[in-house]
């Protein structure tokens, strides 16, 4: 078989060919960079907010497939139960204030009633409602790459509006579920149901700050909780399991990729306000709200560690009990 004769290119043709190669490399590099930036930012956003708002594929598909379906807005700053960083309706936490003997007795009676009522109520039927609003999300320099990509899908959208839609800002209804008596509450609530279901509280008298008792209604605040665990070591966790845990974030990210690991997750829960209504020993309503700020999220990738921050406000209510 005759060897194919090599065609010699003119200097002009060689230059044109090299320019085409450079152009292709540039397009590939830019596309790859943007795709990676988008992916990492989505993972970060998901990590900050996943525990409150549903499966990560929601925001991932919203950006990748059709961002036009996501609510458009600024992400706001709308705060449930008060202004972020300030005192709320239940009063500001004063961890340093000592209780008088009368206040200590009142708190002891209150926690006894609350713990007994919630222990009985977990076996009852009830309605669960939860609303969260994202105030801000900071992905640093990635935002400069993200917004042009997102606007290519929806010219009016930004990373803030995509995240706002993801977390339910912009008019979306709160998440809710009705658990019938005898049903598995975690299964009915579904996504992160074990975090959201009513738990038998293990509050201590010293946990109840600014306690007010008005007939059947108890209102109080809890001390701020820094990176709480689900081991009952903080007043917040003695009330609820509705907190973000690093191991869970890491597990969620694995659903996207094994190339990213969570190196750090720290946060502060503040403005924790609680309302409990108990009639004839039975829980009628339990409502809590808090401001959660992720102060450090570290994601380790081959190129290094990415750092991010974000904050949100949450309110949850258990009501309409059927015993």
In brief:
By secondary structure, this protein is of the alpha+beta class. It contains nine helices and eight strands.
Keywords:
8-stranded antiparallel β-sheet; 28% strand; single chain; elongated; 9 helices; 323 residues; 8 strands; alpha+beta
Biggest β-sheet: count, sense, barrel?
Answer: 8 strands, antiparallel
Kindly report the average pLDDT value.
Answer: 73
The portion of residues forming beta strands comes to 25-35%
Helix content: 25-40%
- Spatial gap, N to C terminus: 90 Å
Question: How many distinct folded domains?
Answer: 1
Q: List the total number of helices.
A: 9
* Alpha-beta classification: alpha+beta
The SSE string, one letter per element, is HHHEHHEHHEEEHHEEE
């Amino acid at each position: 078989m005759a060897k194919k004769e090599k065609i010699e290119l003119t200097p002009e043709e060689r230059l044109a060919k090299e320019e085409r190669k450079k152009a292709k490399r540039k397009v590939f590099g830019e596309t790859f960079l943007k795709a990676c930036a988008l992916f990492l930012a989505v993972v970060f956003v998901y990590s900050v907010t996943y525990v409150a708002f549903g499966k990560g594929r929601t925001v991932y598909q919203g950006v990748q497939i059709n961002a036009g379906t996501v609510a458009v807005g600024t992400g706001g700053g709308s705060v449930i139960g008060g202004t972020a960083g300030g005192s709320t309706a239940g009063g500001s936490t004063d961890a340093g204030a000592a209780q008088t003997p009368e206040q200590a007795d009142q708190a002891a009676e209150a926690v006894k009633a609350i713990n007994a009522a919630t222990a009985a109520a977990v076996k009852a039927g009830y309605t669960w409602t939860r609303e969260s609003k994202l105030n801000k999300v900071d992905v640093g320099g990635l935002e400069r790459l993200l917004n042009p990509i997102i606007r290519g899908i929806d010219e009016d959208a930004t990373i803030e509006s995509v995240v706002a839609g993801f977390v339910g800002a912009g008019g979306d209804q709160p998440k809710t579920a009705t658990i019938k008596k005898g049903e598995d509450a975690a299964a009915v609530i579904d996504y992160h149901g074990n975090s959201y279901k009513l738990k038998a509280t293990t509050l201590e008298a010293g946990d109840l700050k600014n306690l007010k008792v008005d007939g059947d209604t108890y209102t109080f605040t809890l001390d701020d909780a820094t990176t709480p665990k689900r081991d009952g070591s903080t007043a917040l966790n003695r009330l609820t399991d509705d907190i973000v845990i690093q191991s869970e974030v890491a597990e969620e990210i694995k659903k996207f990729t094994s190339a990213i690991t969570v190196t750090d997750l720290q946060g502060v829960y503040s403005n924790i306000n609680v309302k409990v209504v108990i009639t004839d020993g039975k829980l009628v309503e339990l409502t809590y709200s808090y401001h959660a700020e992720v102060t450090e999220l570290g994601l380790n990738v081959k190129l290094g560690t990415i750092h991010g921050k974000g904050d949100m406000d949450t309110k949850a209510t258990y009501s309409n009990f059927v015993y």
